[in-house]
Amino acid sequence: MVEASDWELVQKCQAGDMSAFEELVSRYQQKVFMVILGLLRNREDALEVAQETFFRAYRKIKSFQGGSSFYTWLYRIAVNIAIDAQRRQKRNPLDFRESMDGVMEERNEFAKDPFADVHDKELRVKLVQSINDLTPEHRAVIVLRTLEGLSYKDIGALLGCSEGTVMSRLHYARKKLQEKLRAFL
Amino acid sequence: MNTCGEIRESIGAWLDGELSGAGADAVRLHLETCLVCGEERRQLENLNRAMKDVFESEDFRLDAEPFWHGLRQRIAAKRPWHADLAEWAGPFIRAPSFAWAVPAVIVLLIGALYFGSILPGWGVLAPRNNFATVESIDAYGRNVALLREHESKTTVIWLYQNPDNENEGAGETSDKGPAF
C-alpha cells in the first residue's frame, strides 16, 4: 500500500477527515517534541507546547495552501510557540533551573556510572546552564542545527530569517558557549 | 578571506558543511598552517560533540497514545470566546517592548509640537495664560467682560454699562474694559 503524501493528508484533513490529521500527528509528533524539548529543556512544558502546536495546526489547516512543506509549516508554529514559552521561562529563571535539575535527577544522569569522568560531568552541567542562558533566538538555531541537523536554509525558512542571519546567530551562540566553557573544551 | 579573524568566523559554517567551494578551500588551507585557528577548530568540534551528547541524552520518547488522546480532547473541547480572541489578536497586542518606547515618545513629542503650532493652546508646550476679553453686546453701551484665571481656574463674567459710550454703535469692541 502506497503511503499518502503529507499534502494528500492535509487536503483530506481540510475536508474534515480526522483520521488524516491523526496520521499527520503520528508522523511528526516525535520530531516536533524533540525540537521543543531541546528548546525548553523541560518535559512537561514541552508536552504542553507540542499539544498546542498540533492544536493550532488543526485549527489553521484550512489556511495552509502548500506553499511550503507541511513539516516546515508545522515546525514554524512549534518554534514560535516554544520561543514565546522560553521568554516566559526567562522571566522566572529559578523555576526553570529547578525544573532542569529535576529532569537530570529523575533520569539519574549524574549517578549512572560511578567511574564516569568528573570533567565530562562538569562540562555537561556547565553546558546545560550556558545553553539555558542563551537568548531564545540563539538557542533555536543551536537546537535546530545540532539536534535536527537542518541546513541553514531550512533553519532560515523555519525561523523566518535569511541564511546569513542563521550563520551569524550560530556563530555568536557558539562563541558565547565557547567563552563560558573554554576551560572544559 | 585571509586574516585569522575572518577564518575563525567561518570555521563553524565550514564544520557544518555550509561554505561554498572557494570559501571552504580558504578555510581548509588556512587551518593546515595556522595553529591558533587549528585550536579554535578543535574547541568548536568539542563543543559540537558535547552539545550533541547533551541533546541526545534527553529522553525524547513521546508516548504517542496519551498524546493523541489529550490532543483529541483539546480539539473536541469548546474553547471560551476570549481564548479565541486572544489567539487571534495575540500578534497585534503584545506588550510593547522598550525598543518601541523611544520612537513612540519622539512621535508623541512631534505631535504635541505640531498641534501646538497649528492650534494655539492645544499643544502640551503651549503657554497657559490668563484670558480676558470685553465685548459690546448692544447699542446702549452695555458690555460683557470675561476673565479666565488659569491658576485658580476661576471664570468671572461681568455685565456692565459704560455711561460715556451709551450712544456708540453696536458690534464694536470696547477698547476700555474694566480694570481687573
How would you portray this structure in words?
The complex is a heterodimer of chains A (185) and B (180). Helix content of chain A is 75%, strand content 0%. Chain A is built from 9 helices and no strands. With 185 residues, chain A is mainly alpha-helical. In chain A, helix 4 packs across helix 8 and helix 8 packs across helix 9 (163-181). In chain B, strands 1-2-3 form a 3-stranded antiparallel β-sheet, with no helix packed on it. The radius of gyration of chain B is 40 Å and the shape is elongated. With 180 residues, chain B is of the alpha+beta class. In chain B, strand 1 (131-136) and strand 2 form a beta hairpin. Chain B contains 6 helices and 3 strands; from the N terminus they run ααααααβββ. Chain B has helices at residues 4-15, 21-33, 35-57, 64-76, 81-89, 98-118, and strands spanning 131-136, 142-149, 154-161.
**Please, what is the oligomeric state?**
heterodimer
Task: Give the N-to-C terminal Cα separation of chain A.
Answer: 50 Å
- Helix content bin of chain A: over 70%
Low-confidence stretches of chain B: 168-177
Structural class of chain B: alpha+beta
The largest β sheet of chain B comes out as: 3 strands, antiparallel
CA(first)-CA(last) distance of chain B: 82 Å
Can you give the helix content of chain B as a percent range?
40-55%
What sequence of helices (H) and strands (E) makes up the elements of chain A? HHHHHHHHH
SSE layout and pairing:
The complex is a heterodimer of chains A (185) and B (180).
Chain A: H1 6-14, H2 18-40, H3 43-60, H4 70-90, H5 93-106, H6 118-133, H7 136-146, H8 152-159, H9 163-181
Chain B: H1 4-15, H2 21-33, H3 35-57, H4 64-76, H5 81-89, H6 98-118, E1 131-136, E2 142-149, E3 154-161
Concise synopsis of the structure shown:
The complex is a heterodimer of chains A (185) and B (180). With 185 residues, chain A is an all-alpha fold.
